[in-house]
Specification:
The protein is mainly β and 375 residues long. The chain folds into four domains: 107 residues, Baseplate protein-like domain - beta roll fold (Phage tail proteins - horseshoe like beta roll fold, Roll), CATH 2.30.300.10; 86 residues, Phage tail protein beta-alpha-beta fold; 85 residues, Baseplate protein-like domain - beta roll fold (Phage tail proteins - horseshoe like beta roll fold), CATH 2.30.300; 63 residues. Helix content is 13%, strand content 40%. The chain contains six helices and 21 strands. The strands form four sheets. Strands 1, 2, 3, 4, 5, 6, 7, 11, 12, 17, 18, 19 and 20 form a 13-stranded mixed β-sheet that branches. Strands 8-10-9 form a three-stranded mixed β-sheet. A hairpin with a 7-residue loop joins strand 6 and strand 7. Helix 3 runs antiparallel to helix 4. It starts with a strand and ends in a 7-residue tail after the last strand.
Length: 375
Amino acid sequence: MVEGVQLTLMIGPAVPLPVPRAILDSLSSVTVSSGGDGPGGFQLTFKLSTRSPLHTLFLVSAGAPIPLVRVVIVVTVNGTPEVLMDGVMTNHQITAGGEGGEATLTVTGEDLSRVMDYIDFSGVPYPAMPPEVRVLAILAKYAIFGVIPMVIPSVLVDVPIPVDRIPLQQGKDLAYIRGLADEVGYVFYVDPGPAPGTSTAYWGPELKVGAPQPALNVDMDVYTNIASFSPSFASDSRMFPVILIQNQATKAPIPIPVPDITPLNPPLGAIEPVKTGIEYIEGTAKLSPIRAAAIGLAKAAKGADAVSATGTLDVLRYGRILKARKLVGVRGAGPAFDGLYYVKSVSHELKRGSYKQNFTLTRNGLVSTLPQVPA
C-alpha cells in the first residue's frame, strides 16, 4: 500500500484470521464506507490468477453468497491502528480479464448489523422490560461476534406491566431494534472496533458533542491538508418543528412547538437560516406530553442541518484517519464556512500508492460559534 500505511486483512467463518501473504499481494483496492443513516459497507477487489487460493471461495459456496464469512479490515497510519470494518461478506463475483488480462474477484459486504437481519424472531416475549432492556437482551445473542452493547437508557421510562401487556418482538432483530430507537428518538448503529474482532453496538441519542478531531485546512499553502472542499447552504430548508398531542377529554389536537437546537445538538453555526414553514412531526398525537416532546426534540434535531460540505483528503497529509459521527474543525474556507462541523459520513479508498477519504460534513448554521478553531 502507501508508505506509512499498513493494511491488515482478516477473513474467516465466525472467527477471522489474517490472510496469507499471497492473498494480500493480490489485493488491488479497498473501499469502506461508514456513518450516515444506513449500515457500513466494504468492497475488496483482488487480481485473480488461475492458481489463486481465492478460488476456494467459489468451491466452498458453489458461487453463491457466503453469509457468515467475516471480514476485518485494519489500517495502521503512522503507527496508530484503526479498525475500518468488521463485517460479513454478502456477495462476491468474478470478472474475466479482457485479451489475456487477469480476472478480478470483487467481494462486497456490510458491517455486523447484517447478521442481525438474518433470522425472524417474531413472537419472542419481553415481559416487564423497557426498550433499553429489550435491546440489551437482543444484542446478547451477538456477543459471539465480539459485539459490545452501548445502550443509553431513555428518559421515557415505560415499563409494561405483565398483567396488562407483554411486548412481543415483531420481525428480525435489526428492524425491531431500530423501531425501538425510533419510538424514543434514538439512533442505532454498529461501529467497528476499538480492537480487531470487536464492534460497538450503539443505541442512544445522536450525539453532536465532544472533543473535535484535528482541523481540516482549506487553501492554507503548506498547511493545507485536504484536496477539495465544497460547502453549500440550504437557506430555505429550515422548518419550524411542531408536535401534536391529543386532549384526552375533548380529543382536540394541541400543537406544541419544539426547538431543534438542544444540548445534544448544540448550535455549531452562529447564523441560522430563517424558518420558512411549519413541519408537523408525525406519530406523537396519542403519546403523553412529556414523551411526545422528547421524541419531537430528537426528530427535530435531525432536520436542523442547513449547511453541508463534501470533500476529499489524503490521509497521510492529514496525518490520521478522519472518523465519522464526531466533530471536526474547518479553517481557511472563509468566515461563513469556518468552524466546527459534524462528520456525517466518510468513505475510505485504498489503492497501491494512494489512501484517500471522501467525507460529508453538516451543521446547523453559518459563521463559526468559536473565535478560533482548534488545530
